[in-house]
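Follow-up to my post from last week.
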Amino acid sequence: MRRFVIGSARSLIERSRQNYQFQRPLLSSSYRLLSSTPAVDSPSSSSTMSPPVALNTINPKVIECEYAVRGEIVNLAQKLQEEINTKPDAHPFEEILYCNIGNPQSLGQHPITFFREVLALCDHPTILDKSETQGLFSADSIERAWKILDQIPGRATGAYSHSQGIKGLRDTIAAGIEARDGFPADPNDIFLTDGASPAVHMMMQLLIRSEKDGILCPIPQYPLYSASIALHGGTLVPYYLDEATGWGLEVSELKKQLETSRSMGITVRALVVINPGNPTGQVLAEENQKAIVEFCKQEGLVLLADEVYQENVYVPEKKFHSFKKVSRSMGYGEKDLSLVSFQSVSKGYYGECGKRGGYMEVTGFGADVREQIYKVASVNLCSNISGQILASLVMSPPKVGDESYESYGAERDGILSSLARRAKTLEDAFNKLEGVTCNKAEGAMYLFPRIDLPEKAIKAAEAEKKAPDAYYCQRLLTATGIVVVPGSGFGQVPGTWHFRCTILPQEEKIPAIVTRLTDFHKSFMDEFRG
Amino acid sequence: MRRFVIGSARSLIERSRQNYQFQRPLLSSSYRLLSSTPAVDSPSSSSTMSPPVALNTINPKVIECEYAVRGEIVNLAQKLQEEINTKPDAHPFEEILYCNIGNPQSLGQHPITFFREVLALCDHPTILDKSETQGLFSADSIERAWKILDQIPGRATGAYSHSQGIKGLRDTIAAGIEARDGFPADPNDIFLTDGASPAVHMMMQLLIRSEKDGILCPIPQYPLYSASIALHGGTLVPYYLDEATGWGLEVSELKKQLETSRSMGITVRALVVINPGNPTGQVLAEENQKAIVEFCKQEGLVLLADEVYQENVYVPEKKFHSFKKVSRSMGYGEKDLSLVSFQSVSKGYYGECGKRGGYMEVTGFGADVREQIYKVASVNLCSNISGQILASLVMSPPKVGDESYESYGAERDGILSSLARRAKTLEDAFNKLEGVTCNKAEGAMYLFPRIDLPEKAIKAAEAEKKAPDAYYCQRLLTATGIVVVPGSGFGQVPGTWHFRCTILPQEEKIPAIVTRLTDFHKSFMDEFRG
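User reply:
Got it. Predicted complex:
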């Protein structure tokens, strides 16, 4: 006991200093929690009788947290889906089209063959030296599986790994980062996680001490950030992306919001940048990134770089640069900037969302803080090994000369070029709609069109106690089966209305989607036009 | 924006009522965080300048949290391992034996063939109808893979699933629970998670509002609970297991600790019971479980039942009963008791730790609270699909008549009977040591022997600023390469000393381990005997 009771007492004392003076007597006696003195007649015992679990007795941070990507609109979609399953002609559409979430394989995208070959062989290594296996699997997938198994102590793919992930796989990932950036990467800086989300939570948990700690987040943002900040009891400090300049990120805006929040007593700990942007799809220019790095260095902010869409760039004039590469190219090293880069196997051309693989590269933190990050990772033991293996594969795919190289390249390029075409087609379609303007999706998997809604539509929404964009999205869903997420779930300039639509439906379905969208929008506007 | 800024403002107001009166002005103006009014000359801005990230500026809850299973002793073991790798004769042993963690496959246990066949086929379904596959995989694994793929929308094993996990797999798991308990189970009560740990965190996050909320935990306990309570800012309310009666769980002790903590102003929200016990290995008697259920019902506590060792029972006189079965057999239903049962693919005879599969069955909560649990699950999208599939497999393994049934049964029984023999051998060996007493491991994967340490040894430990049991474990490691975890990492009656040792080293290694342990202990006692 001693160890954690002391710990717990220490923290109670800590917190009591901050705001629970009246508890002081409790603390000195918290050792007595262990003693055998009963306290049946204590006057306070009735008043502290445990209530049953109810909405008003659970953690308010949980109630506060919101995640629109799987919110109300998706619940309605699931309901409609069930109705269609039981009664195919229940609605004016045969299927629900989920454009609410970046989940490519749910819409028919096929996994990259080489990656799945290696995963299957690592799951069932006993077939590796069977003759039939040669006929079923590519030579380089067999070779890669052996290499990976040899990196795992005892070849035990069913064992907990090191808390940061299997060392050999982190070596491979670090090599992949070096090849991408042209600057060294240290495998000990890599923390493998079950997708990027747990990594984001870990950093929020580390940085947020109370609601007086703020995290600068883009508006619009991916709601994982608002949800995680709410769950950890911090304050989201918004900075606006400029829709007029293609969702530009202005450092002057960062400065202004930082100063404003500081003037309100908020201690800003970190800046979240999502590049390529989600939901906004912009790709930052290198000069812009340099200014952001400089800003974080000057202001002593941790730079949390969401780079999960690094493979998803669709326009020749833009290129992805990691913030680590940019900061190193400016001559900044460990001492200058605390930088965390998030990567995931869920995005890119691979879209392996269900595998829950990802990592964060943690640089510019002291050894003592690193130890704390390691400890928190250890409490959860390790991320899933298949996800770890896949993370190593996406950072070191087949190379020229490997048997799979050509087929792998064809699969990858086929997916990426098709995504580029789908993005353009949908962008053009949105821009043809009355009162709708849509920036180009330079990258990522989304379009975030702005809708200029008629007054009557806004009144109709208010009558139903809905945000106007939520009302539009609900009408779109019930009319067409297309699921998109209201802009209010991501944040937008008050008084403007948007929705996020993925570019992921299979290409052959896009024309029908465009027709359905166009017809719906026309009739919606006809209904509400002043 | 509106939505979460209102949310954030609401919560700030909420909290400010509790303890940040002075912040009131901030709150009414927190909308102005979004306005364009700069605040450069604000007097407070310099005082709130963000500090660089340092140990004294991170979340104190993170610092407070501890997890001994991968603590100091394991770091030392990894260091010794590296020394052996570079210089094989660096130490008086050739290998490090990790008896610190329940990680069977890391010590040579083989995965269950049928489970891995199905996982491999689901990872790479395109081989399912190739002729070579018939020669490599059992007929029922192929059949099961098809069945599972048909349960996944679009057969997309690379897609995010429903936030609670794939519905068809939850149906299978619910059926498995019904077959186990003889009482109905609802697939909508199942939340699939990446191992049991995230499920425990989810419940702690839901129940803990502040350090005034307490969670009753056994002492000794598995440190996931103390760590999770610390990370979520609650208070661990300990209850002692009675070593003298084979780690008995007395309801009188629960009552006493509940009343004592209430008298100190703690609101106890839940009771954690680990059955079979970790680190203590006892299996609760059904009558005992009934009394515990009655206690939770009377006191309005959520019963958090850690049942991950449900397959690990080694003595004929004891049998595992789930708390759900026990409460239903008492006639208690949804309205009577809030009960959460945790299960994992990491334990049992399968020991698939690296797959990070598991689930919690959540019963006796209102629809509104369930919605909040669903929302938190949604923020993390879903658990990994291979882990979800494996969770369904362990709850519905091959049946009589299936091609794999015999080989599967042989693998399962071979592992379980060997674990029983290893437990007995180690238990006997510990009990032969001077000043050591060790209760029987009726179940789970651990022994938790008590060491009566000589005064001189305790003094030597104090001289090194170590807990005496930590000192003993460190000496054991450096002398023999055997890694065990000090009792102080799990909690123990103050002044008593223990360590946790897994029963997992392969059977052929046990005699050597016993010899090494015995020789070390003798020399240790010789060194310090008064």
